[in-house]
């Protein structure tokens, strides 16, 4: 598996080397900050979007830390023979003082919000069942059942609920002033 350091990639780009940058993170993570020029093709969509990869160009796979890029590399290496991993991902790119493009305010991905919410509910359920009333253990069981259902069906009730929260809605622009047309 070929890797490239952020500083070397930056140097190659400045020298005009032809590469295609593919960011395999979720759309929310990509929007929060990505390497300039990177195309977003989330890891779970990569196999259905192989035509988006340039056949005659080196493809640099980018994620947050390099782990998902490595997994993506393993998934598609039989379909593309010129893949490279950005060593350390976007995190290492930023730590080198290199710029990122941000197209939204920084927010947590929906998956991360679900993990936090589920973890907190389980923790609260267990603590309350030990300290207040044993029946609170059902809260932890309910969350576990919900996560199991989400894993089996790809339908997550908590994600659906969280997606409706104000911090997860896109900012709506102010309505444009109506122009009066005089005849």
Provide the fold topology:
Elements: E1 2-4, H1 6-14, E2 19-23, H2 27-32, E3 39-40, E4 58-62, H3 67-76, E5 83-86, H4 89-95, H5 110-131, H6 137-153, H7 157-163
Helix pairs in contact: 5-6, 5-7
What is shown here, in short?
The chain has 183 residues and is of the alpha/beta class. It has helices at 6-14, 27-32, 67-76, 89-95, 110-131, 137-153, 157-163, and strands at residues 2-4, 19-23, 39-40, 58-62, 83-86.
What does this structure look like?
- The chain has 183 residues and is an alpha/beta fold.
- It has two domains: 94 residues, Rhodanese-like domain (Oxidized Rhodanese, domain 1), CATH 3.40.250.10; 59 residues.
- It contains seven helices and five strands.
- Strands 1-5-4-2-3 form a five-stranded parallel β-sheet.
- Strand 2, helix 2 and strand 3 form a beta-alpha-beta unit.
- The longest helix has 22 residues.
N-to-C series of helices and strands: EHEHEEHEHHHH
**Can you tell me the CATH topology of the largest domain?**
Oxidized Rhodanese, domain 1
Question: Helix coverage percent of residues?
Answer: 40-55%
Mean pLDDT: 86
Rg calculated over all Cα atoms: 22 Å
Choose one word for the global shape. elongated
Q: Please tell me the total number of domains.
A: 2
Key traits:
183 residues; five-stranded parallel β-sheet; 7 helices; 43% helix
């Amino acid at each position: 598996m070929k890797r490239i350091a952020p500083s070397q990639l930056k140097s190659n780009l400045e020298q005009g080397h032809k590469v295609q940058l593919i960011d395999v993170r979720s759309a929310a993570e990509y929007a929060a900050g990505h390497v300039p020029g990177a195309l977003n093709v989330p890891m779970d969509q990569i196999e259905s979007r192989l035509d988006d990869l340039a056949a005659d160009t080196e493809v640099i796979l980018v994620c947050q830390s390099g782990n998902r890029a490595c997994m993506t590399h393993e998934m598609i290496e039989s379909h593309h023979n010129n893949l490279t991993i950005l060593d350390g991902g976007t995190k290492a790119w930023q730590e080198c003082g290199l710029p990122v493009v941000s197209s939204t305010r920084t927010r947590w991905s929906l998956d991360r919000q679900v993990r936090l919410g589920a973890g907190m509910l389980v923790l609260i359920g267990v603590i309350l069942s030990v300290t207040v009333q044993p029946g609170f253990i059902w809260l932890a069981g309910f969350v576990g059942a919900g996560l199991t259902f989400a894993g089996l069906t790809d339908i997550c009730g908590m994600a659906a609920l969280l997606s409706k929260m104000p911090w997860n809605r896109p900012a709506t622009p102010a309505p444009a002033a109506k122009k009066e047309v005089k005849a």
